[in-house]
Structures are given as C-alpha cells and as structure tokens.
C-alpha cells in the first residue's frame, strides 16, 4: 500500500533522536492565574501585510481537523532550518476576522492570541508542537510568534479615585478584544495611546464618557454638555508605539468605543 506524504511526515516526526525525546518530556514552567490571563491578552499591535512563515498546518491525528484545543499535537510549517528547536514555546495568533461592514479601507485590525504551544519534535522542514494551553479555538493557518512569560503589573489593582487624573493627555477607547463594542471588567480593550505617548506597561487609566442625548429634530445623538461621567479603571498590560492594551479592572457600566481613557499620575 503506498504511503501518502502526510503519513510519511507524521511518522518522520514521531521518530525522534534520543536528545529530542528527552527534551519532549520536560514540562513548561507553570504560570500563575494572573500570568495565564495576561498571556491570553491580544498584543499591542495591528495586523500587518506580511505573511508569517511559521504556521499551523494541521494536527497529528487519525482524521483531518481544522480546529484544535488543549493538548492537541499540531504540525507546524517550519523546522530546524528555520530555527525551531525542541522545547521552544510560541504564541499562536491570527488576525481578527470581522464582519464585512467593518472591512473598510484603512481600518487597522487587532490580533487574537489563541494560545501557545511547545515544540516537541522537529526535522529540517516541519515540526510537531503541543498546545499548552488554548485561550480559544486554534485554527489551521494560525501563525506562531515567539513566546514570552508575562509579568503582572507591579502596581496594585487600580481603584476609583486613586491617583491624580491628567485630562490633558487623555486618549480614546478604540474597541475591545476581537473588536468588540462592549467591554466588561477583567476583559481587554485598546486605547489610541502607546509608548510613543509615554504609556508604559503598568500605567493606570480611568475611563470616562461624554454622555449623549438624542436630538429628534436632527435625528441623531449629540453631547448633552454635562461633565464627563466616570465609568471605570484599568491598567496597561501591553504597550506598542501608538496603541496600548488595557485590562479593565472595575466598571459601573460597559465600556464602549469612543469613551475617554484618562491617565492617572503615579
């Protein structure tokens, strides 16, 4: 009976030299619950045009699958020739897929962290990786990013009223994780301020809203011209050049795109 290329690939990845087999049995460093939450956060970056080289090609299984979860063995399109080694860990990520109405020209879309994997076997052109763990479903075609163990912010969780507010440096809430329009406590949101504006990991922000009212004669909403209403507080868990990811810690209402993000002075 002829052997298919997929069968030969699976067998070749299972036949591992002794040093690789030993490394395969080494467990990953355990993460705290806070670190697990932060590791599943989206990166402070947007989708780029380039196509990453390391991608999920499928699973080492008896049936064809396109969705994967904890402890699944994945086939990765990269091996020793591209720098992969047994024991290395990688985030598994993909661009956020949004409805067609949001796919407008010039819109910058965020990235979803689906989980992370550890390389357990590799040859020159491909590798096997185990999922540990999945933050959400991992799909065929997702790409790999180098893994880094997150460190929880050194500051204590923000509380309402702690720290002076700097309204002269406030930014805006762009959207929540996966471009959601509603963000609740413990979830993540993007703000349009980053390291280029002095926003670093661990920075605290208060969320405020300009209350709107409906104008019947114009058929639209407008500012009620009232003082900004306090909504909640959050802390920066990742910062890029012009965008930051904030974990919402407390809120008395759902946070929405367009709300103000006001930095708190230390």
What is the fold's blueprint, element by element?
Layout: H1 5-14, H2 18-24, H3 33-39, E1 56-59, E2 67-68, E3 73-76, E4 89-95, E5 111-122, E6 127-134, E7 138-139, E8 143-146, E9 171-176, E10 188-191, E11 204-209, E12 212-215, E13 220-223, E14 229-239, E15 244-251, E16 260-263
Antiparallel strand pairs: 1-3, 2-7, 3-6, 4-5, 4-8, 5-6, 9-10, 9-16, 10-15, 11-14, 11-16, 12-13, 14-15
Sequence of secondary-structure elements = HHHEEEEEEEEEEEEEEEE
Binned strand content: 25-35%
Counting DSSP E segments of at least 2 residues, the number of strands comes to 16
Distance between the termini: 70 Å
Question: Percent helix among the residues?
Answer: under 10%
- Envelope shape: elongated
Largest sheet: 6 strands, antiparallel
Instruction: Figure out the total of helices.
Output: 3
Q: Could you tell me the mean pLDDT?
A: 85
Structural class: mainly beta
Q: How many discrete domains?
A: 2
Q: How would you write the strand order of the largest sheet?
A: 1-3-6-5-4-8
Radius of gyration: 22 Å
Name the poorly predicted regions.
3-26
Keywords for this entry:
9% helix, 3 helices, Thrombin, subunit H, 34% strand, 266 residues, 6-stranded antiparallel sheet
Describe the structure concisely for a colleague.
By secondary structure, the chain is mainly β. The chain folds into 2 domains: 5-146, no CATH class; 167-263, Beta Barrel (Thrombin, subunit H), CATH 2.40.10.
Molecular structure report:
There is one protein chain. Mean pLDDT is 85; it is low at 3-26. Helix content is 9%, strand content 34%. The strands form 4 sheets. A 6-stranded antiparallel beta sheet has the order 1-3-6-5-4-8. A 6-stranded antiparallel beta barrel has the order 9-10-15-14-11-16. The protein is mainly beta. The N and C termini lie far apart (70 Å). The protein has 2 domains: 5-146, no CATH class; 167-263, Beta Barrel (Thrombin, subunit H).
